[in-house]
Structures are given as C-alpha cells and as structure tokens.
Write a structure and sequence with these properties.
The complex is a heterodimer of chains A (198) and B (142). Chain A contains ten helices and no strands. Chain A has 198 residues and is mostly helical. By secondary structure, chain B is mainly α. In chain B, 61% of the residues lie in helices and 4% in strands. Chain B has helices spanning 19-24, 26-43, 54-67, 69-103, 126-139, and strands spanning 104-106, 112-114. The termini of chain B are far apart. Classes of the chains: A mainly alpha (198), B mainly alpha (142). At the A-B interface, α2, α3, α6, α7 and α10 of A face α2 and α3 of B.
Amino acid sequence: MARTDAELVAATLAGDPKAFGDIVRRYQQFVFNAVYHYLGVKGEVEDVAQEVFLKLYRSLDRFDQGRPLQAWIYRITANQCLDEARKNRHRRVKNFSDLGEEEEERIRRYFDEDRHGTSLTEAEDNQSLQLLQKMMDGLPEKDRMAFVLREIEGLSYAEVSRALNTSVTAARIRISRVKKKLLAELDEILGSKQGERR
Amino acid sequence: MNTNHIRFWELASDEPFDREHLDTCEECQRQAEIHRLLGIQLSRLPRIEAPPFFAARIQNLIGESRSSLVYYFERMAAQLVPLLTLLVLAISVLLYTVNDQETSQITTNGQAVQVLEESAFPDVSVETMIVLSLDGDEGSKP
C-alpha cells in the first residue's frame, strides 16, 4: 500500500533515501507542468524542477508536519518560478514582445479551426502556449503565477492563496486581472477579424 | 431583469451567472463565446512528462550532498547555532559584568566617573585630572 505524504516525510527525515524518491514521483508531474506553463520554455523546466525538489528536501526539517505537503510543494514551486522570472526578465522582454500581425493571424486561425470543429495539429497546440505567454506579457509575475496555478493546473483559490502567501481575495483579484486582459486581447483579435469579414 | 453585463473574468469555472441576461444581451453573448474559447485554449495547452529517471537523479543528488563534508558541516553548524548563540550571549554578559566592576567607581558627590588609564595620558596623572575636572565644575557654577 502506498505510504501517505506524512509517512514519506517522516521516513525521509529518518534517513530513508527511497522515501524522498517517492515524494518526487508523486509530485513531479505537477511541478514540471506548472513550471512549463509559467515559464513557457521547455528547455528550462527540468533544471527548475530539480531546484524545486532540492529546496524541498533541504526545507523538510522546517516543514510543519501537521500541514499538507502538497501546499508546501506548491509554495516552493511558485517561489522558484518567480525567482527564475526575475533572473530571466531581460530575456523574457526580448522573447515575449508585443504580438505581431503574423501571431494575431495564428490566433485567429487557431480559434477558427476550433469553431469549425477541425482538429488542430500538435504543433499548433504547442504554439498556443507561446501565444498565451505573449498575451499575458506585461502583467505582474505574481498575477501570471496565480493564473497558471488556478486556470491551468486546476488548484483551488485557497491553494493558490497559500502558494503565493496571500489572501484568497487577493488571489482571486490577481487571477481575474489576467483573465480580463486575455479576454480583452482575444476580443480585439477575433473581433477585428469579424469586422473584416463584414 | 438585470441590465449589468456579466463580468466573465471574475467568474470561476463552476460559478453561476445571470443566464436570463445572457439570453437577451448580444454583448454578453459575444463575451461568453470568447470566454468559452479561452477555456478551450487553456484545456488544450500541451503538457509535459518528467523524464523517467528524474526521481532517481534527485535521489542521487541528495545522496551525494549527504555524503559530502560540506553537508556534514552544514548540518553540524545548523545544530550548533543555538548553542553558540547562547555561549556568545553568556560570555558577553560575563565580560560586561567584570568590566563594569573593574572600571567604574562612585565619586564623593555621587557621580560615576570613568577611571582613565595613565598610559593613555602619560603627561597628566589621574589625580591631576580629577582635581582639574572638580575645579572646572566649580568654576562653571554661577
């Protein structure tokens, strides 16, 4: 039978190296995808995820075992992502500048195909993350992190608030700010196409 | 009927909204469509898998760091920090007490004065300095 998180933490602290391996296996999918969807760059995900788990290991003796481990992992992941974003700020500005005409056209095509029920290629689905990153560009990093955790990784508002060390209301405001911008961008792009067609 | 537009960006995915308004408001119908498309886009974002030996690699990294001298020193230092802090505090208090007893004395008019080492002022004796300072105090009185 699988051991609980609390049992794995206790075993790790007692010096069982396999127990921490089990913790990594249990949460690696979450960490990899949260990092990937936040940073938008596949090549950096593994290094950042590795750092998340090493930090988790080093902080286990400070971890309050009365609390859920996953909340601790969400927080370390969010902090690590925000640190990376701070380090990479200059590069991000270069990579994720304003949407060009070509990218706007790609977004229109993406949604047109979706509306008409044609299937999208894997490459097109992959591009959608980059487009999403571009649309979110300019927003505060914490807002983007909150949005990724809630709307893409499916955490509850309470979990997002704990991960970002903020109140539930503040987390909701951050998320709605991102959604508002995304909806406005999409509205503008898709609306302009509809205008051309008329 | 509520004439306020629906604020889709504030809605959680499972949150109810004013459907009656939506049925009659073209603007909200357009926004609802965009909201739906965004939801589809988010649900279709690519996901990635952790490499098969990722957990094993983390275990190895931890194993290596545990066996290194640095790790032992770090652990030892972490355990010794409270003890060393207490020790430093105790020594500081002790030194302060001893120093206070040796270097302070009460003058006849009740003022505490610092006894100066003669070596710091080789040309003036301590007695002369005390006399001078008492003279000065008297001279400054109106």
